[in-house]
Amino acid sequence: MNHYPDNTYTSENYSDVLKSCKREKFLFENHRQRKSAYALNQPLVTYKTPAKLVQNDFVMRITVDAASITELRHLILKSCGELVLFMRVKPIDHASKMKVWLCLSKSSVDTIISHIMRALPQAEFGKITPLLAA
After folding, report:
1. How confident is the chain (134 residues) per 10-residue block, as mean pLDDT?
2. What is d(CA 128, CA 109) in angstroms, rounded to the nearest whole number?
3. Could you tell me which residues come within 8 angstroms of residue 6 by beta carbon, excluding any fewer than 6 positions away?
4. Beta carbons of 89 and 70 less than 8 angstroms apart
5. Is the four-CA dihedral 89, 59, 74, 122 of positive or negative sign?
6. Could you tell me which residues come within 8 angstroms of residue 89 by beta carbon, excluding any fewer than 6 positions away?
7. Which helix (H) or strand (E) holds 115?
8. Residue 100 contacts by C-beta under 8 Å, 6 or more apart in sequence?
């Protein structure tokens, strides 16, 4: 069964017919041209420059004797309660000492250290590090 009389379409002519069809046009396009045309329509996103993080909150570590933890808590809440965002307390060395983490702004570090040093001279101050964004 031949649909075309007198065999006018040979294999060479058939590719010309395919090229003229819109649906089959992508078969004959250059792959790089298609890829670049696709890329031009995409939004430009670069991952090479990291986001600039403005760090306002810091964590200050303090170690005190277990007997003076209540005094430290009262001191922080009375004199610098509005400067501290949160306070975490953990017992160490079989509960003879307590480790305290204070989250505070950079501007309030000096004020809190001076209040604690006046009230608890035996307090040991550790690192003050930026609070990482979650």
Report:
1. 53 59 56 58 61 74 93 88 87 89 88 92 92 66
2. 9
3. none
4. no
5. positive
6. 69, 73, 98, 99, 100, 101
7. helix 109-119
8. 61, 62, 63, 64, 69, 72, 87, 88, 89, 90
What global pTM score does this model have? Answer: 0.56
Assess contact for 88 and 100: CB atoms under 8 A: yes
What does each C-alpha distance from 87 to 61, 82, 105, 123, 130 come to in angstroms?
10, 12, 13, 16, 15
Which residue in this structure is represented by tokens 């810091």?
58
DSSP classification of residue 26: G
| Residue with tokens 């950079």, as numbered in its chain | 106
Run of H or E including 64:
strand 57-65
Residue with tokens 């040979």: 10
What element of type H or E holds 2?
Answer: none
Backbone angles phi, psi at 39, to 5 degrees: -65, -35
User: Which residues on adjacent β-strands are paired with residue 100?
Assistant: 62, 89
